[in-house]
């Protein structure tokens, strides 16, 4: 979810669900140790609960970055062992780390020793065309011994050569049973499943057997789904807001970001373009919020223009 789940996206998603655990986009250890730390780690307090996802492979660097994450107030540190992109592989992290479980375990132990917040791992069920259960079982077992108690499992293999990151989310088959088998074989660990979920019924089915479900792109493209999550999955009262009230709250945030940080409204608006999916006038509404020629306008004025287009389509 690099360049997707930035702080503006997370603020928007928190307007829809108070309870869902949010994850940052993957931040590399190099970016934190040699770059602009506030730019990568700053977030709004309303984003809690919030996990910082790290990309890296050197245990001492991971420990330093995990400590930074704890100092900045994150609730969890997550190590990415699932991203298959060639750019990430060149940095020797992401899915290729599954071939080196001892190195992952060393990194996890270094982070566990450095922080008091949970350290978790996100990974695939295999790499390339090796679909043996023993491969992922041994990976989990080795990393668990280092102190990781929660595994977020994308239920596909990662093909390190020959597929784009997009194809790696679609071509390798989903094998949910592999994750369920891990749950049965490691009863003392927690397993969260990821991959291909798009309805409340699908998520509820998985929750009957597993400890959690991670949803990525479907939540991004159809964000209004999140408004039902607190009731459906956490037993809270029904969401009381409307799409319009959520939009208005994000617009207030946009105006505040412009006033305090000089950030133009479209940095946040791009994340809410799916908010009116399926409603009359949604396309015209999106066109207004996607028009960078309007960037100098106050976001409240842009919202008024967008709603004018919705009214014309009614």
TrEMBL record:
<protein>
    <recommendedName>
        <fullName>tRNA-dihydrouridine(20/20a) synthase</fullName>
        <ecNumber>1.3.1.91</ecNumber>
    </recommendedName>
</protein>
<dbReference type="GO" id="GO:0050660">
    <property type="term" value="F:flavin adenine dinucleotide binding"/>
</dbReference>
<feature type="binding site">
    <location>
        <position position="154"/>
    </location>
    <ligand>
        <name>FMN</name>
    </ligand>
</feature>
<feature type="site" description="Interacts with tRNA">
    <location>
        <position position="169"/>
    </location>
</feature>
<keyword id="KW-0819">tRNA processing</keyword>
<dbReference type="InterPro" id="IPR001269">
    <property type="entry name" value="DUS_fam"/>
</dbReference>
<dbReference type="InterPro" id="IPR018517">
    <property type="entry name" value="tRNA_hU_synthase_CS"/>
</dbReference>
<dbReference type="GO" id="GO:0102266">
    <property type="term" value="F:tRNA-dihydrouridine20a synthase activity"/>
</dbReference>
<comment type="similarity">
    <text>Belongs to the dus family.</text>
</comment>
<dbReference type="GO" id="GO:0102264">
    <property type="term" value="F:tRNA-dihydrouridine20 synthase activity"/>
</dbReference>
<feature type="binding site">
    <location>
        <position position="53"/>
    </location>
    <ligand>
        <name>FMN</name>
    </ligand>
</feature>
<feature type="site" description="Interacts with tRNA; defines subfamily-specific binding signature">
    <location>
        <position position="286"/>
    </location>
</feature>
<keyword id="KW-0820">tRNA-binding</keyword>
<dbReference type="InterPro" id="IPR035587">
    <property type="entry name" value="DUS-like_FMN-bd"/>
</dbReference>
<keyword id="KW-0547">Nucleotide-binding</keyword>
<feature type="binding site">
    <location>
        <begin position="194"/>
        <end position="196"/>
    </location>
    <ligand>
        <name>FMN</name>
    </ligand>
</feature>
<feature type="domain" description="DUS-like FMN-binding">
    <location>
        <begin position="1"/>
        <end position="292"/>
    </location>
</feature>
<dbReference type="InterPro" id="IPR013785">
    <property type="entry name" value="Aldolase_TIM"/>
</dbReference>
<feature type="binding site">
    <location>
        <begin position="216"/>
        <end position="217"/>
    </location>
    <ligand>
        <name>FMN</name>
    </ligand>
</feature>
<dbReference type="Pfam" id="PF01207">
    <property type="entry name" value="Dus"/>
</dbReference>
<keyword id="KW-0694">RNA-binding</keyword>
<feature type="site" description="Interacts with tRNA">
    <location>
        <position position="80"/>
    </location>
</feature>
<dbReference type="InterPro" id="IPR004653">
    <property type="entry name" value="DusA"/>
</dbReference>
<comment type="similarity">
    <text>Belongs to the Dus family. DusA subfamily.</text>
</comment>
<feature type="active site" description="Proton donor">
    <location>
        <position position="83"/>
    </location>
</feature>
<dbReference type="GO" id="GO:0000049">
    <property type="term" value="F:tRNA binding"/>
</dbReference>
<keyword id="KW-0560">Oxidoreductase</keyword>
<dbReference type="GO" id="GO:0010181">
    <property type="term" value="F:FMN binding"/>
</dbReference>
<feature type="site" description="Interacts with tRNA; defines subfamily-specific binding signature">
    <location>
        <position position="283"/>
    </location>
</feature>
<feature type="site" description="Interacts with tRNA; defines subfamily-specific binding signature">
    <location>
        <position position="166"/>
    </location>
</feature>
<keyword id="KW-0521">NADP</keyword>
<keyword id="KW-0285">Flavoprotein</keyword>
<comment type="function">
    <text>Catalyzes the synthesis of 5,6-dihydrouridine (D), a modified base found in the D-loop of most tRNAs, via the reduction of the C5-C6 double bond in target uridines. Specifically modifies U20 and U20a in tRNAs.</text>
</comment>
<keyword id="KW-0288">FMN</keyword>
<feature type="binding site">
    <location>
        <position position="122"/>
    </location>
    <ligand>
        <name>FMN</name>
    </ligand>
</feature>
């Amino acid at each position: 979810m690099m360049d997707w789940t930035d702080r503006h996206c997370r603020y928007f998603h928190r307007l829809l669900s108070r309870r869902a655990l949010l994850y940052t986009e993957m931040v590399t250890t190099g970016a934190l140790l040699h770059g602009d730390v506030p730019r990568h780690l700053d977030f709004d307090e309303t984003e809690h609960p919030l996990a910082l996802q790290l990309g890296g492979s050197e245990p001492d660097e991971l420990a330093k970055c995990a400590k930074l994450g704890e100092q900045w107030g994150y609730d969890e540190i997550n190590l990415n062992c699932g991203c298959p992109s060639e750019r990430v592989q060149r940095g020797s992290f992401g899915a290729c780390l599954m071939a080196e479980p001892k190195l992952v375990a060393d990194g996890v132990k270094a982070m566990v020793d450095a922080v008091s917040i949970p350290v978790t791992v996100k990974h695939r069920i295999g790499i390339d065309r090796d679909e043996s259960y023993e491969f992922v079982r041994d990976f989990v077992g080795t990393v668990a011994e280092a102190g990781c108690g929660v595994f977020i499992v994308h239920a596909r293999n990662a093909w390190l050569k020959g597929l784009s990151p997009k194809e790696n989310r679609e071509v390798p088959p989903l094998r949910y049973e592999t994750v369920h088998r891990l749950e049965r074989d490691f009863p003392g660990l927690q397993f969260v499943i990821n991959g291909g979920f798009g309805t409340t019924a699908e998520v509820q089915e998985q929750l009957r057997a597993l400890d959690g479900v991670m949803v990525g792109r479907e939540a991004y493209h159809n964000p209004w789904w999140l408004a039902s999550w607190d009731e459906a999955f956490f037993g809270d009262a029904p969401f009381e807001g409307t799409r319009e009230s959520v939009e208005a709250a994000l617009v207030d945030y946009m105006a505040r970001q412009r006033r305090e940080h000089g950030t133009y409204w479209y940095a946040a608006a791009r994340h809410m373009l799916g908010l009116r999916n399926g409603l009359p006038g949604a396309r015209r509404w999106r066109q207004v919020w996607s028009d960078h020629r309007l960037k100098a306008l106050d976001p409240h004025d842009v919202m008024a223009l967008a709603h004018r287009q919705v009214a014309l389509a009614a």
